[in-house]
Fold this sequence. Notes:
single chain
Amino acid sequence: MHVRKLTGALAAALAVTFSLLGGQAVAAPAADAGGALAARVVTYDASGSAEFRSAVDRGAAIWNESVDAVELRPSAAGQPANIRVLADNGWPRALTTSLGNGTVWIGRQAVNEGHNTIRISSHELGHILGLPDRKPGPCTSLMSGSSAGTTCTNAYPNTAEKAEVEGYFGGAFAPKAGAAPLNTMIVD
């Protein structure tokens, strides 16, 4: 992983500047004592993910290994979470209500067809982190989703996908054109 060096004052100034220009600003993460930005914590509740619980936890861990600006953590029992993860018999999908917030369904239909559960989890969490589908696409693109085929087990975002999430959470700006749409069901 890499460490961003940006002072909290600069991030705050950028957030204020952007909001004055009429755009939507995202709260800038606080800087640690060394001037590096602390990761924005996004919590998830996988209590409804049934047999996919370990795949959800692994998908979150993959994002934590891949980016610095956001950290996915399980929510404490009884506490509200930014992301709710559920299992059902449909196709995997995500409903992103705002950057870092929404609901993910790990659908058994794709699993029954042979798609990798960890790739599904990581892909759907990618939507909540602001990434759109990029279909058709190669296995090296996490956001290519099911178009990479059932033999694809790559659950890691590529360099461009990592950079996009870093920009959304590490910068003071909201997602730009091309990001996952908000308040829209994304069915993979």
